[in-house]
Write a structure and sequence with these properties.
The protein is mainly beta. The chain is built from 6 helices and 27 strands. It folds into 2 domains: about 190 residues, Jelly Rolls (Sandwich); about 160 residues, Jelly Rolls (Sandwich), CATH 2.60.120. The longest helix has 9 residues. The two termini are about 40 Å apart.
Length: about 375
């Protein structure tokens, strides 16, 4: 890619555009306003005018949502993974509704992966400008199914959803044709027959920031002076090269999610991945450098308490990350694919690590070089 192409992949938080009418719940007072963002991919929005920052398929999708304290996103069901990543505030995550509602509360830095084929909802129970990022599995999510209550409440307000997922708002003068086929929700009996996830079982899918297991030798270059990055897994097999890493949520999502932190003045040296990757800067200052076809492209990102820049890194491009601030940089990485991600390091990184006694073993993990060499004699 050329530098001009790479510029289009930067998604500053200040550039995000939203719609408050992504779904039929905009007609329900308890659910509105809700600000729906699509950063990478269209998500599951039912509004054809949904603003989208980057349409290019990535194998996963990245969105965001914000709504005032007390407002609720009502029960709905997904066919691919939906992962809530709390960047600000406190959120009550609810699930089941078959008929019992179960719930947990997540706060800043917490992540929850809601299983497919169960109904879920969420409510802002914190500050008015709370914000959730959301990760959706696959390029084609299959859409969503709304619960009966949502569809009925919207209809009572004059908003209808057709079988082909068109929203008809009769309050605005939209015509409701007599022969239109309206979407029929699952019955109560069908919802009751869905798999039941009790609170204890769901707890395994809630990854608290305070409980993260950080690997300090997560990358080959972590051992180098002036580098020093560490990583913590959340969902799936990511790029962490530590031998003992076990993701808290291990089932296939179509993507991996993990935290990366870089100390002040530190970096992740030159490397590339065969998979597309998105990063969201939670905290600090970061300079991303990518080798373009026409020179070196650099992009500075910032993460503050209320704004978080993102970038979609293309596959097979050499890149490095530098912490340019005076505090730790905390980055959330989403990478396409369910397999363990294989990092190709620049030759100078491999040589520098070797000089300090470190290498990659045959399983792609950081290991003492003298043992790796001994096995290869």
């Amino acid at each position: 890619m050329k530098q001009s192409d790479l510029t289009q992949r930067f998604i500053p938080f200040s550039s995000l555009r939203y719609t408050t009418e992504a779904f039929i719940d905009y007609a329900i007072e308890a659910c509105s306003p809700k600000y729906n963002y699509a950063l990478i991919g269209p998500g599951v929005s039912q509004n054809p005018n949904q603003p989208i920052s980057l349409r290019e398929p990535h194998g996963f999708q990245l969105g965001g949502v914000s709504m005032p304290h007390g407002k609720t996103n009502p029960p709905h069901m997904h066919f691919t993974c939906e992962v809530f990543m709390c960047f600000r505030g406190d959120w009550r995550i609810m699930w089941g509704f078959n008929p019992e509602e179960k719930h947990t509360v997540i706060t800043e830095g917490d992540i929850v992966s809601v299983p497919t084929w169960i109904y879920r909802a969420f409510r802002n129970v914190g500050v008015d400008d709370g914000f959730l990022f959301s990760g959706l599995g696959r390029d084609d999510t299959g859409g969503i199914l709304w619960g009966p209550w949502t569809i009925e409440q919207a209809r009572q307000a004059g908003v209808y959803l057709t079988e082909d997922y068109r929203m008809i708002d009769t309050r605005r003068g939209d015509a409701l044709p007599q022969d239109v086929r309206l979407l029929q929700p699952m019955s109560d009996a069908e919802i009751a027959a869905l798999e039941d996830w009790d609170a204890e079982r769901m707890r395994e899918r809630v990854v608290r920031f305070a409980d993260l297991r950080w690997s300090h030798e997560a990358l080959l270059d972590s051992v180098l002076p002036g580098h020093g990055a560490s990583m913590a897994p959340v969902v799936g097999l990511g790029q962490n090269q530590s031998r003992g890493v076990i993701p808290p949520v291990a089932n296939a999502h179509g993507m991996s999610i993990e935290w990366l932190r870089i100390p002040p003045g530190g970096q992740v040296g030159l490397h590339r991945l065969a998979r597309k990757q998105a990063l969201v800067l939670k905290r600090g200052q970061l300079r991303l450098s990518i080798q373009a076809d026409d020179g070196l492209y650099t992009q500075d990102l910032q993460g503050t308490p209320t704004a978080w820049d993102s970038y979609a890194i293309p596959a097979d491009h050499w890149r490095s990350l530098h912490n340019t601030g005076d505090q730790e940089a905390l980055v959330l990485l989403l990478t396409s694919g369910d397999e363990k991600k294989s990092i190709e390091w620049a030759r100078e990184i491999v040589q520098a690590a070797a000089e300090r006694g470190w290498a990659m073993d045959a399983n792609g993990c950081v290991a003492p070089k003298h043992f790796v060499d001994r096995a290869q004699r």
